[in-house]
Design brief:
There is one protein chain. The chain is an alpha/beta fold. The protein contains nine helices and twelve strands. The two termini are about 20 Å apart.
Length: about 290
């Protein structure tokens, strides 16, 4: 298993998101889960039940922070207030790395509360990388940027999405949170080969992988996190592991959340796909 500077030297296997419907089960049954991912913004508060539960979880488990409100693609920069509250939580959780989404989402302090796509231009890549460098220095913790799902493309794009992701992360010297379900969703909606995406991503920068389910509609598929993972997404995951080696893997399930056992059983399917990928990787290395 690899441990890079993008994971703070920490090696993790399979984890799941910490969600409210599972609080009681986790605290009472103490299931043997490798690690939990939390949504940072849910715990960037001064007190209350959420922090009380988080502190009890931290006594038993490794927790990794994943955010939805950093908005590194904002032309006006990243909110200082958001960063200060994020850093307080980082100190509390001792998360080995912090992830968020490669997107923008606020203007003049007004938050969209959505993950809006960035035009894939060299100017946007440079500005986004400047923001990320500042954030990583401020937090004093490795950063990893997640590729978002998309439902259209800008006419002014100067590169592909996978080229933009690599360009920003190279310029900022941050890691990548590779969401293979988002790659699949965007490939169907925008008409590209998802394997070309996975095969282009610099494997040494991948700190974590997300897997999830999605919903299919008449014209689009949507990243809803409310179904099991489908085989085409598992095959992208297998290929990603084949290229990257063992990488911390997290199942997201955020809608119509089933029992803890069902979520954990779905997440553990990654172990079979990971073993298959590592066998192929070992074969290639031995050849």
């Amino acid at each position: 298993m690899s441990a890079s500077k993008f994971t703070g030297g920490v090696e993790l296997a399979t984890g799941i998101g910490l969600r409210v419907p599972h609080y009681q089960h986790i605290l009472s049954e103490k299931p043997a889960v490798g690690w939990f991912e939390i949504i940072s913004e849910n715990y960037m508060v001064e007190g209350g039940r959420a922090l009380e539960v988080l502190d009890m979880i931290l006594e038993q488990y490794r927790v990794v922070q994943h955010g939805v409100g950093l908005y590194p693609g904002n032309a006006g920069g990243v909110s200082r207030d958001h960063l200060q509250r994020l850093k307080r939580l980082v100190r509390r959780t001792k998360t080995p790395w912090v992830s968020d989404h490669l997107c923008w989402g606020s203007v003049d302090g007004r938050m969209s509360h959505d993950l809006l796509p960035i035009p894939f231009t060299f100017e946007a890549a440079r500005k986004t990388a400047e923001n990320l460098k500042m954030v990583q220095d401020f937090l004093e913790t490795p950063l990893a940027m997640e590729n978002v799902s998309s439902y259209g493309e800008f006419n002014g794009n100067e590169m592909t999405e996978w080229e933009f992701l690599a360009e920003v992360c190279e310029l900022a010297d941050v890691g990548i949170l590779l969401d293979v379900n988002n790659i699949y969703v965007s490939s169907i909606n925008n008409g590209f080969d998802p394997l070309e995406y996975v095969n282009f991503v610099p494997p040494e920068r991948v700190a974590q992988i997300h897997i999830a389910g999605h919903s299919r509609y008449e014209r689009f598929i949507v990243d809803t996190h409310d179904h099991p993972v489908i085989d085409p997404v598992w095959k992208l995951y297998e290929r990603a592991i084949e290229r990257c080696g063992h990488v911390a893997t997290l199942l997201e399930w955020d809608g119509r959340i089933p029992s803890f056992e069902e979520v954990w059983t779905e997440a553990r399917k990654s172990e079979t796909w990971r073993a298959s990928a590592m066998e192929k990787r070992g074969g290639y290395e031995a050849a």
